[in-house]
Amino acid sequence: MQVNIDLGLFRGTMSAEKSFHMTPDEFRRHGHAVVDWIADYHSRIESLPVLSQAKPGQIRASLPAHPPAHGEPFEGLLKDVENLILPGVTHWQSPNFFAYFPCNASGPGILGDLLSSGLGVQGMLWSTSPACTELETHVLDWLVSMLGLPEKFLSSSTGGGVIQDTASSAALCALLAARERATDYTSNQKGCDGRIVAYASSQTHSSLEKAAMIAGIGVTNLRLIEVDENFSMRPDALARQVEADKRAGLVPCFVCATTGTTSSNAMDPIAEIARVAHQHDLWLHVDAAMSGTAALCPEFRHLQNGVEFADSYNFNPHKWMFTNFDCNCFWVADRKALIQTLSILPEYLRNQATESGAVIDYRDWHIQLGRRFRSLKLWFVIRHYGVEGLQHHIRRHVQLAQTFALWVREDESFELAAPVPLNLVCFRHKAGDAANQTIMDRLNRSGDLFLTHTKLNGKLTLRLCVGQTHTEARHVERAWKRICEEAEKLSAK
Ligand SMILES: Cc1ncc(COP(=O)(O)O)c(C=O)c1O
Fold first, then answer.
1. Which pLDDT tens digit goes with each residue over 46-62?
2. CB neighbours of 217 closer than 8 A, spacing ≥ 6?
3. Using a 6 Å cutoff on CB, does residue 101 contact ligand 1?
């Protein structure tokens, strides 16, 4: 069917048409205001309560029930961010943020992210923006040497790296590739038959359980191996479980070792786990979500001895490497296994570059199709700080955490609850769970600092992680002072 349109008439109407878009000049003006607002926010962040004091529903209640029928002036938007949104923000970028693991931003990271938004690129294929793919490949190759990772992860070798949104997605991709490899690439076609098993420790991040659900392996087929007194996986227990599963006719395919568990920053013995993995042909995935950043400093690399045996590895620059969320770096030793697992090529994505085999199409390296230009922010961070700058801040954070651990050790009322290999201190007041809960609740309610808890050996344990971009000695000193003050109030009762 042919549709005739009078283009002359159409063009004439177009030029006279009202536009609702922001003009480049307006964008420039409002953009400057937004950057100023962000810079001011970072300057005053220490005066804001770290943990949002908002009550459930408070933020929604302050918002209009209906969307605006007509556009509003931009100045009003920024005012509402200040007045309505900020009270509901927990300030992850406060130097007094010691909770969970950090989720850092930095000047170069924010600007790189802004540029990525400005370019608005969708880099699903090499051909949809060659720079999006090639910068990513290049920066991930840089990181292999920056972190002392094995050369097999380089794109010039058998492997390669890709940016995922999160460590959870990286684990899922690794598990899927392991499942496919173990079933001779048939389970994508036929589904799983319930015989495939995978292994992690009882301390492994919950994202592995979620990956087992999504990958069709099933949570009961993810064996949680016991840990030793330092919360590290026991390779002998792993070996016994794999052997038992094989005897039962099951198909072991995957093991996850962690460099720096979430609960207590325990280090799994990768080299010994690798020996079991090698013997039974398991895919070895190393999850170094936060602590992987420490490998920028050669003196901390021993914590992941054995990484050279890994089939895949990941860490989150969005945690400790000053790169805005989201940014997970994921490497595989054999990219063919990953691509064969995740590749799908509908007609509408076919193009000459792909057919030539000369390019990387990252859509084959993760779950989703579309992808942002995330490598820009990572590139900016690495170029701004340089290896020297990154090492400086990581070393400083570790030193501050070690000093804090020393204060805990020397105080009769407190005890350390786990070894402190890097920047996470797990500790508790000796008066028991209720006392620790009270100390934490009061501190967090005060807004002075924010810390979180875990349970180790069944006991409530406080976690203080030094890793926020701008945390300095004075913040850690004040945190300890405030903790001691709250502890003294308890005994004064
Ligand atoms: C060791 C470890 N693995 C995985 C994750 C999940 O991270 P993400 O939010 O990137 O999925 C975390 C989060 O803290 C973690 O500590």
1. 999 999 999 999 999 99
2. 175, 179, 192, 196, 197, 198
3. yes
